[in-house]
């Protein structure tokens, strides 16, 4: 995964957690609203079960793209636990999702 794509993911996650934007962002086949919906489920501090909206969003996500961020050092600095993120498809009972 290129550092440019990694930087974009970090920026999106920060913006999603801090500010509601009027610009639509699409990352790895997920909109900003869908990323926001999944954020509580991948939070290091007090993670929640993924919502049905999050699970629905994961059904059309680009897993190759998402898996490219699995080892990003930036995710942890913004409160995202990569292990929790990698486990979302299983938490959502998405049997056909590829493993990272």
TrEMBL record:
Domain spans labelled Bifunctional inhibitor/plant lipid transfer protein/seed storage helical? 28-100
| Signal peptide extent | 1-21
InterPro entries from the UniProt entry:
Bifunc_inhib/LTP/seed_store, DIR1-like, NsLTP-like
Q: Name one GO biological process term.
A: systemic acquired resistance
GO terms for MF: fatty acid binding
UniProt keywords, alphabetically: Signal
Mind telling me what this protein is named?
Bifunctional inhibitor/plant lipid transfer protein/seed storage helical domain
Species per Swiss-Prot/TrEMBL record: Arabidopsis suecica
């Amino acid at each position: 995964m290129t550092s440019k794509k990694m930087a974009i993911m970090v920026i999106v996650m920060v913006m999603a957690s801090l500010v509601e934007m009027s610009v639509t962002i699409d990352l790895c086949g997920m909109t900003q609203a869908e990323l926001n919906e999944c954020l509580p489920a991948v939070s290091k501090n007090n993670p929640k079960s993924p919502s049905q909206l999050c699970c629905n969003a994961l059904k059309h996500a680009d897993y190759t793209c998402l898996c490219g961020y699995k080892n990003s050092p930036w995710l942890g600095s913004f409160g995202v636990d990569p292990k929790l993120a990698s486990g979302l498809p299983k938490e959502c009972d998405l049997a056909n999702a590829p493993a990272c």
